[in-house]
Write a structure and sequence with these properties.
Elements: H1 8-36, H2 42-65, H3 74-103, H4 113-130, H5 133-136, H6 141-164
Helix pairs in contact: 1-2, 1-3, 2-3, 3-4, 3-6, 4-6
Length: 170
């Protein structure tokens, strides 16, 4: 049985919607970064939810890109990769700031454990994704530096993990 294929026009519309979603992720990221400096993590959770929606939507679109009528379309694939790289750069930048704020605490503030654990996983997965060859050409020097910073933060947090996983009553 042959795999289902999808019309390019449908995938173009989905990519337009993904671009709108990427812009929304960017706006929410700005707010989360401002609020994280004040130890407010509610905006950060909203950012993560919006980024998670982007990731889920991009999985759907990537599946359609893999099964386009007429075969691969480098223009559509390139647009998808650009949007993905942009969003993952935002994700790593905002995650780094969030983890940096958390790392300043000797104990995690009450209620941040779930976010902290999620961020470790997200940072690792994002770093892995951005290191894929198809995204390397889409990263500027700042983004490459942030990927390196993410690796350093992961190492430091892993070293401090036993003490950071003690939860304060603050």
């Amino acid at each position: 049985m042959a795999a289902k294929t999808y019309p390019k026009a449908e995938v173009e519309k989905l990519l337009d919607a993904l671009e709108v979603h990427a812009n929304e992720v960017s706006a929410v990221a700005d707010e989360a970064q401002k609020k994280a400096e004040k130890n407010s993590f509610k905006a950060y959770q909203a950012f993560r939810n919006k980024a998670g929606e982007f990731e889920t939507f991009s999985i759907l679109i990537e599946g359609r890109l893999d099964h386009l009528d007429g075969g691969d379309d480098s223009r559509l694939r390139g647009h998808f990769d650009d949007l993905t790289a942009l969003t993952y750069k935002l994700l790593i930048k905002t995650s780094i700031q969030f983890l940096w704020v958390l790392a300043q605490h000797s104990e995690l503030p009450l209620g941040t454990r779930e976010i902290f654990v999620q961020e470790l996983r997200t940072l690792y997965e994002t770093k892995k994704k951005l290191n894929e060859s198809r995204y390397q050409s889409r990263l500027d020097e700042e983004a490459k530096r942030k990927v390196h910073v993410a690796e350093e933060i992961l190492t430091e947090i892993i070293d401090k993990a036993p003490s950071l996983l003690q939860f304060g009553t603050k």
